[in-house]
Design brief:
Elements (H helix, E strand, L loop, with lengths): L1 E3 L5 E2 L3 E6 L8 E7 L9 E2 L3 E5 L5 E11 L4 E2 L2 E7 L20 E2 L3
Parallel strand pairs: 2-9
Antiparallel strand pairs: 1-3, 3-6, 4-5, 4-7, 7-9, 8-10
C-alpha cells in the first residue's frame, strides 16, 4: 500500500511523506525502492512504514513508483501514487478529496 502525503491531491513542498504498508504471508518484507519513472530505480533500502521523499523537477503532476522485496528476495509488483506539486500557492489548504492508495502482491521465484 502506498499513499503520498496522506492521500492528498496536492503538495506545496517537494518533500512528501510516503505512507507504506507491505505484507507477505510467507516471509517478512525487508526492503523497498522508489522510482519517479517506474523504470529507473533507486537502490534498495530497509523497509519502513513512513519515509520522506523529495519530488524532483518543476511543479506539476508527479507519479512515484515503489517496489518491495521480502527476505528470500521476491520482488512485489510495482505500486504507484500521484500528487500535484504546486509550490506557487504556499498554502497547505487543499480540498478534502484524496487519491486512493494502490496495492500489489509479491511475484514469487519458482
Amino acid at each position: 500500500l502506498l499513499s503520498l502525503s496522506g492521500g492528498a491531491l496536492a503538495a506545496t513542498a517537494a518533500n512528501v511523506t510516503l505512507s507504506l504498508t507491505a505484507q507477505d504471508a510467507r516471509s517478512p518484507v525487508t526492503d523497498m525502492r522508489a522510482s519517479p519513472t517506474g523504470t529507473a530505480w533507486g537502490n534498495w533500502g530497509a523497509y519502513r512504514p513512513s519515509v520522506i521523499y523529495t519530488l524532483g523537477g518543476a511543479d506539476g503532476v508527479k507519479t512515484l513508483y515503489i517496489q518491495f522485496r521480502d527476505q528470500p528476495g521476491n520482488i512485489s509488483a510495482t505500486v504507484s501514487a500521484h500528487i500535484l506539486l504546486d509550490r506557487s500557492t504556499g498554502s497547505a489548504s487543499r480540498p478534502a478529496s484524496r487519491t486512493p492508495p494502490t496495492t500489489a502482491g509479491f511475484i514469487r521465484a519458482m
